[in-house]
Amino acid sequence: MKAPTFKYLRAESMDDVYAAFAEYGDEAVILAGGQSLMPMLNMRLAQPAVLVDINPIYELSGIVLSNQKLHVGAMTRHVEVANAELVAETLPLIGCAIKQVAHRGIRNRGTFGGSLAHADPAAEMPACAVALDATLILQSHGGARRVKATDFFLGVMSTDRRSDEILTSIELPTQGSNHAWAFHELSRRHGDFALVGVAATAQRRSEGLDGLRLVVFGCEARPRISEVVASRTLVPQDVAEFAAAVVKDLDPMSDLEGDAEIKLIQAHALVERSLNDLLAAQPYD
Ligand SMILES: Cc1cc2nc3c(=O)[nH]c(=O)nc-3n(C[C@H](O)[C@H](O)[C@H](O)COP(=O)(O)OP(=O)(O)OC[C@H]3O[C@@H](n4cnc5c(N)ncnc54)[C@H](O)[C@@H]3O)c2cc1C
Questions:
Q1: Fewer C-beta within 10 Å: the chain N or C terminus?
Q2: Is domain 58-173 given the CATH code 3.30.465.10 in the classification?
Q3: Whether the Cβ atoms of residue 181 and residue 211 lie closer than 8 Å to each other
Q4: Which of 26, 103, 118 should be mutated for ligand 1, with most atoms under 8 A from CB?
Q5: Is 117 in the pocket of ligand 1 (CB under 6 A)?
Q6: 2.160.10.10, 3.40.1080.10, 3.40.50.720, 3.30.390.50: CATH of 180-280
Q7: Which residues in the chain come in under a pLDDT of 50?
Q8: Ligand 1 centroid vs 35 CA: distance in angstroms?
Q9: The pTM is what?
């Protein structure tokens, strides 16, 4: 199929974006890397009247370290995130997970912000953003709004972003040597969306792991921190019990990739594997 007819606006500045929102309201849709939006247009799953191309706005791209936070511009391409030493050094969870996002050609165009704004429940970056307690910066003509990733994702391709807001950047608290991380996903082929995945971080303590933030994705309608593990210290003897409790807390949805029951079995294996990884990174004394 071919895309429906739409008007194309090339935004050279943020003012151009706000002007498009003011003139066209809900009918104006941001075009970032186009790697999800264009297929959706071609399949007629989206039929916006106006595409607002933000590719010319260079200030929306880039990765900067400041005040122990990594500030990633929304238009930063997946390939830039994957190649950035800053990311590998300060947020190895993202450095690992980004390599699982699609294929090279798609990573060359697709953007970090686009992936979050699109909010596919099987996508890797939204899960990492939640696990890492990221904050999203949304700008409208009226000013900026900061939203925690934990509050941003509402459901399948549904977020807290208002139609007059553009996602401009993402703030991620950096992690040091006292942090452990784990990432696992099951997919049919490398580069496919996850059937089920897990992104997790924790702080290393001599007696175990504290501050566990574990997200199962591709399973529920949105990535969220497991409430079971968030408030407890994890020691090796607890892994089986923890994994079972995490899976019991899930509310999986059946989709084209598998039914809910199978997702639970897959999630159980990945949660257990992730917890063991986190503990393996733990220096016991
Ligand atoms: C074959 C294929 C395989 C893929 N596999 C994976 C995969 O394994 N994992 C994965 O995570 N992704 C995968 N993707 C999707 C890819 O990662 C996209 O790059 C990403 O989902 C969207 O980023 P984009 O920059 O292309 O956004 P676009 O396609 O341009 O936009 C997507 C949506 O987000 C909105 N949007 C984008 N940027 C902003 C912004 N700054 N502010 C407000 N709204 C915005 C758009 O309006 C649109 O609704 C795949 C895509 C394809 C085609």
A1: C
A2: yes
A3: no
A4: 118
A5: yes
A6: 3.30.390.50
A7: 284-285
A8: 5
A9: 0.96
